[in-house]
Amino acid sequence: MKRIAILTSGSAPVATEMMDTLNRGSRYRIGMVPEPLAMNPERLVDALKQEGVEFLILENYTQSLPEGFGVPYMVISEGESVTDATRRLNVECPEYGPERRWAQTLREDFSVKAQTPPPMPTDADEPAQTQTQTRAPEPQAAYFNPAPSGMSQGNQASTPAERKPMPKSYLLWAILATIFCCMPAGIVAIVFSTQVSSRYFVGDEVGAEKASNRAQIWIIASIVLSIITNSLYTPLMFLSAAM
Q1: Quick one: 124 and 206 in the same domain?
Q2: Which of 172, 177, 195, 220 could form a disulfide with 181 if both were Cys (CB 3.0 to 4.6 A apart)?
Q3: For 13-34, how does the pLDDT look when each residue is reduced to its tens digit (9 = 90+)?
Q4: For the whole model, what pTM was predicted?
Q5: Same domain for 99 and 207?
């Protein structure tokens, strides 16, 4: 089973759907890299090697990986479908030895067609000279742990089946409220709006929901304060002009 990690600087709809689909099979385990770690290429390669990640999927990733990064990767281009990206993954991802042996047993082309493998050959089916060799156990691969080692268990990302959609960030409304309404309250709304995606991709779904609600509250507060200020300031302006 291949360990694959997803790198993104924002939304990754194609890679996320691939993760949800391929994690149901037995060939890949795919997980999302936490955003603070994904934005630090110097620390990233060491963390990936510690987790045993063997391949990367990049979508909407704004950082530049250094030359000779050490972990092979593929970039999902704009407009590429999930089907096309999955086909490319089957070609570009490094080969997996046990599945190649299953394919050879079935006399099928490993690179073209992936099937549910039959039981592995028993010792009686192998040549006599290999029966005395001790096999190393196959690694029990798990997809990349989305939480870095210093994070608590409560902040770890849930599995794809349990993952909720990302809450609305209201970033556009926060910017408009800052420009046209009350600037201090609008700035607070922008801060909470930007925290929605960062907390969601780290795996803190509860924190992302709270940030979304607080952004909405501060947007409303900015509008209300603007109305109150204008309602008080306009009569005073007309009164001073009349005097």
Answers
A1: no
A2: 177
A3: 888 888 888 887 767 788 888 8
A4: 0.40
A5: no
